[in-house]
Amino acid sequence: MRKLGRREFLKLATAGVGGVALGSFMDMGGGKAVEAGEGEPVPRAIGKFIDRSTGQVYGDELPILGVNGYHYIVATKNGARYYSIESIQTLNRDHFPFETIVQDERLGFRSDDIRFAHMLPRTGGRIDRIAFPSEDLLSGTYFDNTITAAQTNGMRVMAVFNPAWPRDADYYKARIDYCLSKGVMVELGNEPDNNTPGYEFWKDRDFDTFGAFIKICQDYIYQRDPNYQPILGALVDVGLTEKYLTALVNAGVNIGHLRHGVHAYQSAEDLPNRLWTMGRAFKKFGINPVVDCTELGAQYPYLQKGVLLEMIKRAYQTKVGSVIIHQLFDNPEGGQPYGFGVVSPDWTITYPIFMQINAFVRLLQMGVQPQTIQPTAKPQGTATPTVTKPTGAPTKSPTPKPRATRSDRD
Fold first, then answer.
1. Is residue 1 part of a domain?
2. Are residues 332 and 225 part of one domain?
3. For a surface tag, which of 153, 341, 385, 409 has the fewest beta carbons within 10 Å of its beta carbon?
């Protein structure tokens, strides 16, 4: 904590980083603006300190005047002071502590909830990854309405097309037609090797029939647009990448004309390790595709989700094409009362990590770029690295098989 001089405060509180200028945020329920005393700057949000041992907020309300780096500028009786974003919980989801909405083109979130489509730009990401049963990947469905709502609010959509078992060519083509007509990024399949009960995304985990699905879709897409490259669904076990690619090649798939998905969880080093393993397999097949991190997640209680910020920074150090945080809403999973999200399931609570990610995006826009790396040798540690968990983090495997909400399933 450091007290700011008035001139320094005014400079920071009014500094903007390109984007959409925001007026005074109103409480959508009662229409009451955040108030300020006479002659005082108007706070952009109100927060309270968080007790890390209990997760409860406490103390007096803190008027948040702005943001500098990873710190809030807070008005106190002793003047404006810095406090770390992770130490304060904002109290109203409709208040936004930043002066502008800034989005990064590589960043996105998994979000299927149409109710909050208008708030997606505030996430700091430009991409909305949407996954519903493939029957709904047609016009006039909830899936269609959700895609339209996201696009109307300026989001690029990554639509997961995962039919779950072999279908006929007409079934595939109808959904490809729909996706191309909507102008979305198409992700073909999702974790076809997943054997977690309730999360088996392809029948019998059969790479041969999955390869036939990819072949039909790729050929049809190529006929429609030779330059379009869909994203190949990621594996749970990247050690199977060579087997996966072999099955695709045997099915006649042009594996060099696909973007390739990867999922990483719980640790900042999980993604580099996975990219290194996949890179070895790519080299054997003579390809150098774009890799998209279509799921990056950390399943911890919300005060321990700070590890996700380090995972995002690490992901940006690699050359992945996009980084999709799994997921926006913290739906309970795996028997835990919490999931992978950065806001509560009904968005009544905005976790500090949500604001930290926003701060990261602003630093990117200011030119503070993480140093780029591309693993050329196996990183230190094992292929399933351990992670030093903050106090109170769940005592589970640091790299569990990625889980998704049941809406991913057919």
1. no
2. yes
3. 153
User: Tell me: the pLDDT tens digits for 339-374?
Assistant: 999 999 999 999 999 999 999 999 999 988 777 666
**Contact (CB, 8 A) for 232 and 262:** no
Give the count of beta carbons closer than 10 Å to the beta carbon of residue 219.
Answer: 14
Alpha helices (H) in 86-197, listed in sequence order: 142-152, 169-182
- Rounded CA gap, 253 and 179, in Å? 20
The answer to whether the peptide bond before residue 304 is cis (omega within 30 degrees of 0) is no
The answer to whether position 97 is within a domain reads no
- Scanning the structure block, which residue is given the tokens 């399943």? 299
Residue 379 has pLDDT above 50, yes or no: yes
| CA pair distance 143, 72, nearest whole angstrom | 37
Asked whether residue 83 falls in the same domain as residue 131, the answer is no
Please name the residue that has the structure tokens 């108030």.
35
Residues 77 and 111 in one domain: no
Q: How many domains does the chain have?
A: 2
Burial code of 270-298, b = ≥16 C-beta within 10 A, e = fewer?
A: bbbbbbbbbbebbeebeeebebbbbbbbb
